[in-house]
Design a protein that fits this description.
The protein has 9 helices and 6 strands. The chain is α/β, with parallel strands linked by helices and 223 residues long. The structure holds adenosine-5'-triphosphate (ATP), the ligand O=c1ccn([C@@H]2O[C@H](COP(=O)(O)O)[C@@H](O)[C@H]2O)c(=O)[nH]1 and magnesium ion. The site of magnesium ion has 5 residues, from helix 2. Monomer.
Length: 223
């Protein structure tokens, strides 16, 4: 089976053009609304949504030999080894038939980031970063009611710690390359999506709410 990059090389005329897939990393603290907004982006802009957490949960349910290890890591809010997550992401990209991806909740640490770039040779077009205060994220997670084993106060606190210590540095890395588009995610879902739309819509299209797209160092409430 060819790689996802091989699949994307073939243009509509069947000729071989070097066209890598477009990848947008969607990052933010637990409960900041990544999955909710990705569903809206898929509907309006034709991306395929790949939640790394969802892929890992599906792997547990598939009876894979890594299932128990993944389940234990998720219960503790820990980061699953890069090779496992990247393999799942690559497989999902190949199977999608699309060439535009929202990768939600990955990379979660510097090692994830470096390994993804090394293995796939793909750099994100940009990074969508949902900024939300911890208290609001905690409220949302405790009322999510989707039966997730990690939506309990003990694991939520561990996930916040990992987010601050390991995941925010990844956002800072991409900010230093001018790739971060920060959104104030503490507002109602529709308002957040107005700001998201402004980022994905073609540049000459006027979209309400553009003023809410922030620089990383402006008004960061998640720390
Ligand atoms: N802007 C918002 N205002 C209020 N509630 C929201 C908002 N966005 C999402 N929610 C709700 O908060 C909960 C968490 O949202 P979601 O699952 O999208 O977050 P997430 O960032 O993907 O979280 P995780 O990292 O745990 O997967 C859901 O119940 C969702 O309906
Ligand atoms: O790249 C990843 C993504 C997720 N995990 C683990 O899964 C849980 C849940 O992730 P969500 O994004 O909230 O769905 C996370 O706390 C990690 O334990 C991971 O290891 N690597
Ligand atoms: Mg999610």
């Amino acid at each position: 089976m060819g790689t996802v990059v091989d699949a994307a090389k073939q243009d509509v005329n069947g000729s071989l053009a070097e066209k890598k897939p477009t990848v947008v990393f969607v990052l933010g603290g637990p409960g900041s609304g990544k999955g909710t907004q990705c569903a809206n982006i898929v509907e309006h802009f034709g991306y395929t949504h790949l939640s790394a957490g969802d892929l890992l949960r599906a792997e547990i349910n598939s009876g894979s030999e890594n299932g128990t290890m993944i389940q234990n890591m998720i219960k503790e809010g820990k980061i699953v080894p890069s090779e496992v997550t990247i393999r799942l992401l690559q497989k999902a990209m190949q199977e999608s038939g699309n060439d535009k991806f929202l990768i939600d909740g990955f990379p979660r640490n510097e090692e994830n980031r470096a390994a993804f770039e090394e293995v796939t040779k793909i750099e994100p077009a940009f990074v969508l970063f949902f900024d939300c205060a911890k208290e609001e994220m905690e409220r949302r997670l405790l009322s999510r009611n989707q039966g997730r084993e990690d939506d309990n106060i003990e694991t939520i606190r561990k996930r916040f710690k990992v987010f601050l210590e390991s995941s925010l540095p990844v956002v800072e890395y991409y900010d230093s390359k001018g790739k971060v588009r920060k959104i104030d995610a503490a507002r109602p879902i529709g308002e957040v999506f107005e700001s998201v739309k402004a980022i994905f819509a073609p540049k000459n299209e006027k979209v309400k709410g553009y003023g809410h797209v922030l620089r990383l160092n402006e008004c960061c409430s998640c720390t």
